[in-house]
Design brief:
By secondary structure, the chain is mainly α. The protein is about 85% helix and about 0% strand. It is elongated, with a radius of gyration of 27 Å. About 5% of the residues have low confidence.
Length: about 300
């Protein structure tokens, strides 16, 4: 009888999981149909033309909301299925954790695209030294500043620097002052090294003087700043790893103990006190992680 009862339980869990998957799939298809009808195709095609370095540069708002809602439903549905499979039938726990994982799943696209924004900004900043040095060399060779920027944009590889410089040159050809076009580039993708370059160009064009000599000093400043940032990042690497390791340690310990002695750990997920303990633990872990990250992330 025990083997038959166990088989019936597995069949029941399989049916519940299958129903959950079908429900999630149906909701995703419905949400997808509604979301795709709201997408402005013209705005999506023109998204990369002069937009600021933000999430909207990579994806339009309608598509982002669709992905958030779809991933939130999928994440919460899968986790509720796992809870039912683990014989957790506490309705409050299921609703609460399902809502929590819905929020977590909906936040993942935001985190992903923010990382893409940060990566693009970092790539732009890494290319500033080559940009300023290249423009300085062209000025020393006798070229004017607009021609120097155009030559560098032609020779540079595909990336944020090239994209932004093409926009600057387009605005300059349409009648904008070069200093204003460079200021617009700084407004789209703020960077302290670019700000130094923009201020130098603006002041030199207004007051006169040798722009090549000033840019050579700016190049030395940017190179020194980069070396300092690399050294600082190396010194704080251990702190960042410790923050991640300390935050994941309780979760890893819980999973290992749950696999070794399930009867002892099942109390945490089947009683109200256990769920309170998990909530307190998660809150303290998040606070500790944020505090450590704040300590090791030194603003330069």
């Amino acid at each position: 009888m025990s083997e038959i009862s166990l088989l019936q339980q597995f069949i029941t869990y399989g049916i519940v999981l299958a129903a959950t998957v079908l429900l999630v799939y149906g909701m995703l298809r419905f949400v997808q149909k509604l979301a795709l009808e709201r997408i402005d195709r013209e705005a999506r095609d023109d998204r990369s033309s002069g937009l600021k370095n933000s999430i909207e540069y990579f994806i339009d708002t309608s598509s982002l909301h669709y992905i958030q809602l779809s991933l939130g439903i999928l994440t919460s549905g899968i986790f509720v299925g796992v809870l039912l499979f683990a014989q957790v039938y506490n309705l409050i726990a299921i609703i609460g954790l399902g809502t929590l994982f819905f929020v977590i799943g909906g936040s993942l696209p935001i985190i992903y695209y923010k990382r893409k924004v940060a990566a693009r900004a970092q790539e732009f900043e890494n290319g500033m030294l080559d940009f300023v040095a290249g423009v300085t060399g062209a000025l020393c060779a006798g070229q004017a500043l607009p021609q120097a920027i155009e030559v560098f944009s032609r020779r540079s590889e595909v990336g944020p620097i090239k994209d932004e410089l093409l926009i600057v040159l387009r605005e300059y050809r349409l009648g904008q002052k070069l200093a204003d076009a460079l200021q617009h580039m700084y407004d789209r993708i703020p960077c302290e090294d670019l700000l130094l370059f923009v201020i130098t160009v603006r002041l030199t064009l207004q007051s006169g003087g040798s722009m090549a000599d000033v840019l050579q000093k700016i190049t030395q400043t940017i190179r020194a700043r980069r070396e300092f940032k690399l050294k600082l990042r190396t010194l704080t690497a251990q702190g960042r790893f410790e923050a991640l390791a300390m935050s994941l340690a309780p979760l890893v310990a819980f999973v290992l103990l749950f696999c070794i002695n399930r009867d002892m750990m099942i109390v945490l997920v089947t009683t109200a006190i256990g769920w309170c303990a998990i909530g307190v633990m998660l809150t303290l872990e998040i606070i500790g992680y944020l505090v450590i990250r704040k300590i090791v992330n030194v603003e330069v």
